[in-house]
Amino acid sequence: MSDRQKLSKEAYDRLKAEHDDLTTRGRIEIAKKIETARELGDLSENGDYHAAKEEQGKMEGRIIHLASLIEDVVIVDDDGSLDEVREGCVVSIRYDGDDEVEQYLIGSIEERREGVTVMSPGSPMGKALLGAKPGETVQYEAPGGLLAVTVVELAN
User: Fold this and answer.
1) Could you give phi then psi for residue 120, rounded to 5 degrees?
2) Class at the top of the CATH hierarchy for domain 90-155
3) Is 15 exposed, middle or buried (0-12, 13-18, 19+ CB in 10 A)?
4) Which is it for the CA torsion 46, 52, 56, 62, positive or negative?
5) Does the domain spanning 5-76 belong to CATH 1.10.287.180?
6) Which residues share a beta bridge with 116?
7) pLDDT for 7-42, tens place per residue?
8) Can you tell me the distance from the alpha carbon of 94 to that of 103, in angstroms, rounded to the nearest whole number?
9) How far, in Å, CA of 149 to CA of 128, rounded?
10) pLDDT at 3 exceeding the cut of 80
């Protein structure tokens, strides 16, 4: 169960809508592009045809990825209360010895939001931060040695 993708309801709904769109409208549009390119003649030297086929391959890859995500997902409940770092929250941290505050969204890249860097909960800092409360300092092993960060603030 711990290996299953965790997503907010909002991210799940967005990904499901994208999947539905790609499997309907997206496939129809790409089929039309391929058919139009075929009508131009010799496929071996037809750049439009090859570009459309490449676009189709990328789209099908995204469809497969989305299908696997939405099929095996755990929707993280957001009950509004946020007293410790958990997946799906935005955490503001300060590195020891630094006054600058940085913000990270703890979770999947699929949860990304404008202006906030996504941090995997499986990364060294992500693991150390999970469960930490505002005001607490946690340490984690980085390539350059042991680092400490203080949780400044949490947001949904």
Assistant:
1) -65, 135
2) alpha beta
3) buried
4) positive
5) yes
6) 113
7) 878 888 989 999 999 999 999 999 999 999 888 888
8) 9
9) 9
10) no
